[in-house]
Amino acid sequence: xxxxxxxxxxxxxxxxxxxxxxxxxxxxxxxxxxxxxxxxxxxxxxxxxxxxxxxxxxxxxxxxxxxxxxxxxxxxxxxxxxxxxxxxxxxxxxxxxxxxxxxxxxxxxxxxxxxxxxxxxxxxxxxxxxxxxxxxxxxxxxxxxxxxxxxxxxxxxxxxxxxxxxxxxxxxxxxxxxxxxxxxxxxxxxxxxxxxxxxxxxxxxxxxxxxxxxxxxxxxxxxxxxxxxxxxxxxxxxxxxxxxxxxxxxxxxxxxxxxxxxxxxxxxxxxxxxxxxxxxxxxxxxxxxxxxxxxx
Length: 296
Prior knowledge:
seven-stranded parallel sheet; 296 residues; 11 helices; alpha/beta; three-stranded antiparallel sheet; 12 strands
């Protein structure tokens, strides 16, 4: 369908709700582990006039917050900057959340994001190792994320970092680099999931290079297998400090929802810390899983 012909018609039933808006479909990047560009087709963008009309309607209906679900909301960067500036100029004033690529922001733009109402962002960091980021075709280095997280933190914008353990080329030393990044970069929240091997992703075309076999959660390559990856993930959950683990299914959306219900950021963090402490206690007392298999 035409993304400019499927606009949301907000009304008073949305008052006080967290609403989800898509301003772009697909993704212009080709990350090696991701199937989204394959199944979604070419990148399609909503016009900024339509985005602003949708936001004005959402504001008039009294929504509590907006979640932009675009996978790369701040790309193209010129479009994103223009949108943020229009949100400021038109005083939209709605707290908003989105995915964000740190390599396309600077300190000035992050300041504008905060002024426009940005309350939190989801960062697909994926790894603390530049070597693994290169294997993933992320188009970024760890330094971009460190700078971005620092600027976001200075503006009071909540950060949630997403990480993958087990991508081809992963070793104990690259896992250690990811752990070090999570503990020192200043992320508010993080979560880690195992590499999931889909055969319609770019990495499949290099399977022989990595000695990559299997499918889905059950895979093996030259430097790691799925069982080892999950052992690392469980260990990291028990060991990591300096950032708070958040449920991989809820992530930033949990924070947006709880804030819309009146919880302060510190209250949300304490709630998640208590859940994590309970989980660690259960893991210590009863073991991790009957068969040692869990992505959570």
